[in-house]
Amino acid sequence: MWETITGKEIYHVTPNSTINALAISPDGNYLIIAGCNRPDTISHCKKGSVIILDSTTGKEVAHVVHDGIVTAVAISLDSKYVVSGSSDNTARVSSIATGEEVSHINHDSVVNTVSFSPDGKYVVSGSNDLVVRVWEVTTGREFARITHLDSISIARFSPDNKLIASGSADGIIQVWSWDSEELIAKTCLRVSRNLTRIEWKQYINDALPYQAICPNLSLDIEYITVIAQDSLSNTNDVHRIEIALNKAQTELLKIKTINDSFAESIIIVRKAISQYVISEVSAGRIKSALELLEQADQSNISIDDKYALNAICWFGSLNGFERDVLEYCDANVNLNPSTGNYYDSRGLARALTGDYQGAILDFQYYVDDNSADSVLIEQRKQWIEQLKKGINPFTSDVLESLNSQ
Question: pLDDT tens, 27-54?
Fold first, then answer.
């Protein structure tokens, strides 16, 4: 080690090794030397090491051992990490302070070049396997790769982290964008759809859950059906059903033509919601059922199951939610205009919300329908007479009685 201005030697070290690479940390505190440990000849070198020295004294601070010659080293801009490439086909990130490994990546041949990104988050490594890999410092997770026609001799990041330049024995220098978000954005402008589930499994595998890589494009329609089926098998889990609703809503906005598969998935979602509503109403959880129906409305998914609509209309009215359920009462009558029972349920909601004239018409339809029990018909006739006099027949005792029927 010597002074740059005077050329005066400060100290020297004599490691019992062949030195193939060295680096000085940006903060000036460390000197890194790397190569082959105590070889008889270079061809017999079986171990390689990275020796981390205090740049002021030349004393060893820590060291890193490879199972082959160390061919390249680099230090992160914050002087916390050293990355080393080796003939053991690995590149390793280690702590400068301790020498402990932080992460590594495997190549299929000798690693010739390593470098940190300016922000210190990534490493680029190049190998005789013809591949340049970009990977995360803290995890070793690979983010991008590019291939040459021959061994990689050098690879470096641009100052803004967005580009990588790589050179090879093929005589070609490639400059390429590696940023995953930028690559995804460019790809999504060129394709018309996301991967199907089969394609996802083939190219990415199931270790990463199926998802929309391009958020502006539709998911695989069959996947929506799977979600719907899942919600149907878990009708007591409102969160699963809401997930299905949200997915369906998103896809409805993207898909211009609803094909048979997607239509089937919507039918399944509707069935799941209907079963959930009936289950919640039966258990007296009217508010929970109403919250799910509201979520369905927001997702542009209308419920057309007559039993679910009638259940929420009738029991919702009996339990103080008459104003909330009236729209579902109306929907059921509109969908089933010849069924007296649904007029009867709406009549109750109308009466409780002060629409006595509407209630009279609905109860009268029920009476004229002639399909109900005579006792129930007589009861409705009495309600009609009271409503005509401006009297609300639905006292708390009557409501309690109806609720227990």
Answer: 999 999 988 765 444 444 567 889 999 9
